[in-house]
Amino acid sequence: MEKTARHLRRIAFMKESTRKRLERLRVEFNALKVDVNPEVYAEAKKLPLETVLVWLKEKRQREKKLALERRNREIIRLAREGYTNQHLATRFQLHPVTISRVIAARFRQRKRPMLADN
């Protein structure tokens, strides 16, 4: 019985230390800037270079996605104000068909039925 209790305490300690490590890594990830030198950052924070490279890739992908979402919201806003697809295409340096697709995608999102909460 004593051995089991000791084993359970050890497991609980390992879980807590893992949780603290994960939290530290989450803080490091959130503080990471995309223009940082990965080798210098990895050395300074005592992290594996591969980890920093994966983080940078993920951060850059997130930034691209956010920029695209901002652009699409701006296109929708201006389309609601009455701008033509051709005008928007010229303004955003896109093809008019791309503008049509952005607007159509937004329209499809709006037409989806809402799921009822059970």
What would you note in describing this structure?
With 118 residues, the protein is mainly alpha-helical. The chain has a domain at 32-111. The chain has helices at 2-31, 38-45, 49-80, 85-92, 96-111. It is elongated and about 75 Å long. The two termini are 45 Å apart. The model has no long low-confidence stretch (mean pLDDT 87).
List the helices and strands and how they pair.
Elements: H1 2-31, H2 38-45, H3 49-80, H4 85-92, H5 96-111
Tags for this model:
mainly alpha, 118 residues, 5 helices, 80% helix
Radius of gyration, taken over Cα atoms and rounded to an integer in Å: 24 Å
The helix content is: over 70%
Q: List unreliable stretches of 5+ residues.
A: none
Give a short account of the largest sheet: none
Question: Which class of secondary structure composition applies to the elements?
Answer: mainly alpha
Strand content: under 5%
Beginning-to-end CA distance, first to last residue? 45 Å
Task: Summarize model confidence as the mean pLDDT.
Answer: 87
User: Any idea what the shape is?
Assistant: elongated
DSSP summary, beta strand count: 0
Order of helices and strands: HHHHH
Number of helices: 5
In brief:
This protein has a domain at 32-111. Helix content is 80%, strand content 0%.
